[in-house]
Amino acid sequence: MERFLYSDDNKRYHTWNYYLRHRYGKKVCKIPLNAGFSCPNRDGTCGVGGCAYCSGLQSGDFGGDPACSIETQFAQMKAIFDQKWPGSCYIAYFQAGTNTYAPVNVLRKTFEPALALPGVVGLSVATRADCLPKPVLDYLEELSLRTDLTVELGLQTVHDQTARRINRGHDYHTFLRGYGELTRRGIPVCIHLINGLPGEDLDMMLQSVRQVAALRPFAVKLHLLHLLRETPLAAQYKAHPFPLLKKDEYVRLICDQLELLPPQTVIQRLTGDGDRRALIGPLWSLRKREVLNAIDQEMVRRDTVQGARFFQKPQRNKEETF
Predict the structure, then answer these.
(1) DSSP string, 105-160
(2) Which pLDDT score, from 0 to 100, does residue 312 have?
(3) CA contacts within 13 A on the Cβ side of 21
(4) Around Cβ 294, how many Cβ atoms within 10 Å?
(5) Distances (CA, A) of 161 to 128, 166, 235
(6) Predicted confidence (pLDDT) at residue 16 exceeds the cutoff of 80
(7) Is the pTM of this model over 0.70?
(8) Average pLDDT over every residue of 293-307
(9) Where are the beta strands (DSSP E) in 13-119?
């Protein structure tokens, strides 16, 4: 098979690093920040307790301290990144919580200082599809005209029965509405999906990717479910254990999913980082480099690339069998 179009190395999928290097001509680092935003799925607006898998830090376990200013958080994280990649550009990444869950005047006071920080070339804003009222959409559209803005929308699954089981707080229709509002305004969206959610089999996980692929998103993050201590999902697991994905299962699944996604879609992540102090499983996920290398090797073994089966009719074959 010919070399993958969106690659300068041995990668057979459209990596985030490839996209950023070609856009900026240098290394670009995402600086995780915590602005202290809450979530409607925690404060009772649409639910309480949050998503069943979500940690007490609202997925911001590796971000800054919300008690510190955005400027201080940025400086602290930048110092760490600069040790490895000196002279980089930066994307201010508002990761923890729901980062559009506030009035626009609050969002301005949060995002504008981040944009003014030295070396910052863009913003990445993680949020939920049910937290995009018109005034917020108007402000995001304004931002997108001034800087490289990506809105990261958590979907996790297209299956509403799974969404109810994990206490997601909204359904797939709500996601599609929010995604549509953003894309109609020309705002790039990165969609998050989680593999290995309780009750989902291989076909369900592949169906989530097929439906996301049909949207032709700017970017996708594919995560492995991390079962973390002191989460509602950990309590569910203790009472009624459900299978966690094995490493070889996950590697084959990711390769299946990459084949289904459009080659133009940027792959921002193929696995996640679970806090090793809180991680119950899968423990193999702590060896992130090993997992990524195994994905590369499996793509080579198949002699395949991202998008090889994009928009093919759903069918089972030997590559989709655990």
Answers:
(1) HHHHHHHHHHHTSTTEEEEEEEE-TTS--HHHHHHHHHHHHHSEEEEEEEEE-S-H
(2) 67
(3) 10
(4) 19
(5) 18, 9, 19
(6) yes
(7) yes
(8) 97
(9) 28-33, 89-94
Crossing angle between the packed helical segments 104-115 and 134-146, to the nearest 10 degrees: 20
Retrieve residue 30's tokens.
Answer: 């995402």
* Span 19-45, average pLDDT: 91
**Angle in degrees, CA 303, 309, 310, rounded to 5:** 135
Q: Which residue has the tokens 């950023």?
A: 20
- How far apart are the C-alpha atoms of 58 and 301, rounded to whole Å? 38
Tens digit of pLDDT for each residue in 38-80? 888 887 787 777 788 887 654 545 667 889 999 999 999 999 9
Whether 259 and 308 have beta carbons less than 8 Å apart is answered as yes
Structure tokens given for 304? 């395949």
Q: How far, CA to CA in Å, does 295 sit from each of 143, 188, 255, 287?
A: 36, 26, 7, 13
pLDDT at 60: 47
Please provide the size of the chain in residues: 322
Q: How many CA atoms lie within 13 A of 129 on its CB side?
A: 24
**How far is C-alpha 293 from the geometric centre of its chain's CA atoms?**
20
Residue 307 CB coordination number (10 Å): 22
Encoding tokens for residue 22? 């070609």
The residues near 7 (Cβ < 8 Å, ≥ 6 apart) are 13, 14, 15, 18
Contact 113, 70 (CB under 8 A): yes
Cα–Cα distance between 161 and 151 in angstroms, integer? Answer: 25
Tell me the per-residue pLDDT of 169-221, one tens digit each, with 9 for 90 and over: 899 999 999 999 999 999 999 999 999 999 999 999 999 999 999 999 999 99
Task: State residue 113 phi and psi, 5-degree precision.
Answer: -60, -35
Which of 111, 98, 109, 104 is CA-nearest to residue 37? Answer: 98
